[in-house]
Amino acid sequence: MGETFWGLVAGTAAQHPDRVLLADDHGRSLTAADLAREAEQVAAGLHQLGVRPGDVVSWQLPTVLEAPVLMAACARLGALQNPVIPLLRNREVGHISRQLGTAVFVAPAVWRGFEHAAMGRELGLETVELDLDGEPGPEMRLPVGDPAVLPAPPDDGTEFRWAYYSSGTTADPKGARHSDQTVMASANGMAVGMGFAPGEVYPIAWPFTHIGGITMLTSVLRAGGTLVLFDAWDPVGTPERMAAHGATILGSAPPFFRAYLDAEARHGGGLFPKLRICTGGGAPIPVEINRELVEAFGIPGVVCAYGLTEFPVATCEMPTDPWLGTTVGHPSPGVEARLVDGELRLKGPQCCLGYVDTALDADGFDDEGWFRTGDLATIDEQGVVRITGRAKDVVIRNAENISALEVEDAVLSHPDVVDVGVIGVPDARTGERVCAVVVLRDGASLDVAALGAHCVERGLARYKCPEQVLVVEAIGRNPMGKILKNDLRELAARS
Predict the structure, then answer these.
(1) 77: which of 26, 50, 325, 400 is 20 to 30 A away, CA to CA?
(2) Are 254 and 285 in contact (CB under 8 A)?
(3) Residue 140 and residue 29: Cα distance in Å, rounded?
């Protein structure tokens, strides 16, 4: 099917034209032939607006069918595309567009009360404004034109054609440079680990503009199955709507899993009769939640994958793994992994070409070209990888490094704890103390002594137990489920 992403789209349309690849929460769907046809028309629409091969198209769309169509259209045209997570605002989008030299910004007029297109114009960007308000009709809400005006599609899958940025919660976002081949290689682990195949139904309510979007679109193009796109998440109503599509896979972070479990309990069981596995990525899956999912749905467990914007789906578990849900699995096909001073370093076909800001490459890669993940890990004799924490996400108490992840796992196993983030806060005696920021079940209360006793009972060393507990209504996370630790540190500083 060719070396390029457009080659994959066109090849799938030719070989499996009637295969339903995409659907949404509004009753719409696209076959492989539909996707290729709509994408060519949109590519022509962009061309008529002056976009040429190599021009930078930054686009900020929610998780609707227009997003994968625009993605495929940019690939057909040969534009350098930059999917932008919808939560990013003027500071981040301004930084990204200036660094890339964005030629065109495609965005909704208004989405969830925010004027995205107006932001683009305020930033001085040539803006294509889309009307995504209200229920969609059968037509794609994107500019269209006659594909006869299009130049030949790109034929080199190794060129820089994709720019994906980190969320930028602590500093300016970092942009990773990807090619067609690197982003498509991110699907290798999904095929081997999750076993994507025709008949699979995977509803997603996370941002399609995350690098996971191209990973999953490549997966269904190559292997079959259907992605069902949800542009809004309601922990009460959305699980039922996902169930109506016959979900066989559910993901992808603790707040989502909790909502599925609660929905299953409300229905007295049987809500997801076709469910085959759950999948986790972006944040570790606590052991207790994994156990509940196994018991509630009769599945093997959570198939965990691990990756970064710079190196997506570096590892993945398989449903048959005996250690399912307690690791991030073996390296994906073609990926090499090693440890240097406890830090996981990687090489493989999905590794980015480097950073948009090339000054960051020196810290991002070691002298031998291995990507430095910044994550602490172990690799056992079978090659199975376990993430033990972030190199920078530790509490240093009395000169001892305490993994926040290890403490979070112990705390979350408490029956009254719904969510938790562990941070280190300054302490005059010990340097830092362990602080657990928790969300509790309705009506519950929890103090340091009770939580400490529970953690010791779960096998946590006493010196690692929380010395401070802050109870909050919700813990902030980025769109892929990672806890916003800086927000928790600011909260602790005010408490």
Answers:
(1) 26
(2) yes
(3) 11
Tokens describing residue 278 = 């759950």
Q: Is 282 exposed, middle or buried (0-12, 13-18, 19+ CB in 10 A)?
A: buried
Q: What is the mean pLDDT of each run of 10 residues along the chain (495 residues)?
A: 88 97 97 98 98 98 98 98 92 94 98 96 98 93 97 97 77 90 95 88 95 96 97 95 97 87 96 96 74 95 93 95 89 97 96 97 96 94 90 79 88 94 89 94 94 93 93 84 86 90
Inter-residue contact 419 to 437 (CB < 8 Å) = no
Please give the model's pTM, rounded to 2 decimal places: 0.85
- Domains plus CATH for the chain? 5-185 (3.40.50.980), 233-390 (3.40.50.12780), 394-494 (3.30.300.30)
| Nearest residue to 430 via CA among 454, 466, 458 | 466
Q: Where are the beta strands (DSSP E) in 54-111?
A: 56-59, 80-83, 104-108
